[in-house]
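Researcher: Please translate sequence to structure tokens.
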Amino acid sequence: MSFSSVSQLREELNKTAGVKTLLKFFDEGSFCETDALLKSEGDFAEAVTGYGTVMGVPVYAFAQNSDVASGAMSKAQAKKIARLYDLAKMTGAPVVGFYDSVGGRLAQKNDLLAAYGEILGRASEISGVVPQLSVVLGTCLGTSALIATSADFIIMEKDAELSIDVTGECASACHNAKHGIANIVADSKDEAIDKARDLITFFPSNNLDVAPSDDALAPQEDASCTVCSIADADSLCFVNDEFADCVKTAFGRVNGEVVAFVSTNGDEIDCKGGQKISKFMRFCDAFSIPVVTVVNSKGFKTLKSAAKVTSAYAEATTAKIAVVEGEAVGALYIALAGEASGADVRFAIDGAVISPVNPKALAFIMNEDAMNVPVAQQDKAAEDFAKRELSAINAAQCGYVDDVVDSSALRVKVLQALEMLSSKRVETLPKKHTTI
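Model: Translation complete:
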């Protein structure tokens, strides 16, 4: 392609799908393109790269040009994206990738493998250093899918495809969401871009920075859950909502400051739930995002889920606040709110039960006479035993929680604790990472 002037060339560049995507993503007037004139086999490169701001936060981003060789990966595209990662590493800013491609330019043969490897290497290098977000707007199969899933979070448009299998089997957004791969599913491309803008504002620019503050808001009226009663109104952004129903994970704000929430709902934590909790906690710890854990569960279904969650919490040095509501039984209490969890502050809502084993089983062991009643009355007898012997007040008197609070006062208590923990610093033993 040849042009008579730079202005004519730029006018044509601005018509490409990648530029249009990035202009929607970045704040108006903030987008600056990098390697804008780089060619690939005589045409524009198959991706657009650049930087700008999102809600005032500096961000690097790239978007594949589905209308230029169908966005196929090439040496030129890899060179542009790799340079973007290098800039992000030097300056400490998040990277967002928008994927829409048929695959790669197979005619480039082994050069194509090197191109994929170049990007994967850089993405792995800055993992845990700067946040990474992938937004799948169309087709993303094969090695491109591997690059996309190396990000911390993945947003998919509902009709997009993401799979390591180039045949596209099990590639739908619905399938990926149910298996915990896609963290958020959007109804349209524009909504996917908007959700990327929202999510990126909860992250610090890098692992040495703090997440951006926002205007403090009042708590949500008529809150439907404990997390909603703590967070600022309309501030919650749930992730992996279609994966592992036994637990909810979300980012939100408390008095304008970013906070992560983990909330169990009374069910036992299965393998999927353990995976969901541990991955979320490791991300929050990498970027020092404080975590509030609402504990209400009878325990873990499997030893594997217990080990994963216990390790993730024990290793995390970010600020951790535990709130026990309902029941916290055995290993579940130990992992999420006990000494092993490393929780800095532990609250219990009045009426909560903390027990080393199932409360009914403990009642049979410790209060055999009272449980010697007709079967229909045993649940009531066990409940009375739990209220008397396993109450939150008893736990507080033994030092297993710091305070017992009414649910109406919980937000204030959590806010005070977050303010005190904002300067938390912890020295850890020298090591690369745990092996659990």
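Researcher: Any highlights?
Model: The longest helix spans residues 75-91.
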